[in-house]
Write a structure and sequence with these properties.
This protein is mostly helical and 286 residues long. It contains 13 helices and no strands. Helix 4 runs antiparallel to helix 8. The longest helix has 27 residues, at 66-92. The two termini are 26 Å apart.
Length: 286
């Protein structure tokens, strides 16, 4: 069975959103969690796809493709930075701030994509981005404490790195899977000192590390590389915004925390603008 791009990204976002619940059950250093999570998810990804980590891109004749290799490494490093920065931001500032600031990603894509990918923005893109950003602000309005400013800065940088990862994964559409696997290796290596310093996790924490590595990151990583090949970078970022919208759903189910009216209205606003944009652009294609 073949999964089309948007469906793959929707499932990816749903699985990504389970990470918060799993991580809450892991009593360990946050950066160490990021490292082991990437080690597990990267290994899982390579096992399922039966591939190995590639450090360069070569053409059909086996010659080094320098330009593609540079794009490949930019995509991998950008996604690795996204994972590390987001975990570090969560440690230093509020979760609401970290999620909100990371999902400023579409703003960066609108600004950068025309120069980096040649994809032209449409009027509906600008209208949607205004609606989506307003929805996100409303969605997290009750949690916008000032937080630690260093943590807020790291979260904002994770939004920029996420945008770059989305853009360059799109440009690496033929080998985005390899870039994703490489990003997990980079993350695992960078975070390894924190793993050593933190010592061995408990049995319960080990179980949830396995779940967060496979269900929350491993499977979504494969789905993301499928989806990013078939949709525009900005579209991909809008679809994956389902992740912060679904996080409160799991909190309601597993922690009994009921969202506020602002949260509900913000979520409806975001989904509404995304759906309207999709309908408008599909009608134009027809």
């Amino acid at each position: 069975m073949t999964i089309n791009g948007p469906v793959a990204l929707i499932i990816c976002a749903v699985l990504w959103s389970t990470g918060g619940i799993f991580i809450k059950n892991i009593e360990w250093n946050a950066i160490a969690i990021a490292g082991i999570r990437s080690l597990i998810s990267g290994s899982f990804m390579l096992l399922v796809t039966r591939q190995r980590v590639h450090f360069s891109v070569r053409d059909d004749k086996g010659r080094l493709d320098k330009q593609s290799t540079v794009l490949y490494w930019i995509a991998a490093v950008s996604y690795a930075l996204t994972m590390i920065l987001f975990v570090a931001a969560n440690k230093l500032t509020t979760s609401a701030n970290a999620i909100l600031l990371q999902y400023t990603c579409p703003v960066y894509i609108i600004l950068l994509a025309p120069f980096l990918t040649g994809e032209k923005n449409r009027p509906s893109d600008y209208i949607t981005i205004v609606g989506v950003m307003f929805g996100i602000i409303l969605f997290f309005a009750d949690g916008l404490e000032s937080g630690n400013q260093i943590g807020n800065l790291l979260a904002a940088l994770s939004g920029l790195s996420y945008a770059l990862a989305t853009i360059f994964m799109r440009r690496c559409s033929g080998y985005s899977g390899g870039a994703m696997a490489l990003s997990h290796l980079i993350t695992a290596v960078v975070c390894f000192p924190f793993v050593i310093q933190s010592g061995a996790p408990s049995l319960k924490s080990s179980l949830f590390l396995l779940l967060v590595g496979t269900v929350s990151i491993g499977i979504p990583s494969i789905l993301y590389t499928i989806g990013i090949k078939n949709v525009r970078a900005l579209t991909a970022s809008f679809i994956t915004m389902l992740e912060p919208l679904l996080n409160p759903v799991w909190v309601i189910i597993f922690a009994g925390e009921v969202p506020t009216i602002k949260t509900i209205l913000g979520g409806v606003l975001i989904l509404g603008f995304i759906m309207i944009r999709s309908v408008v652009q599909n009608r134009k294609k027809e």
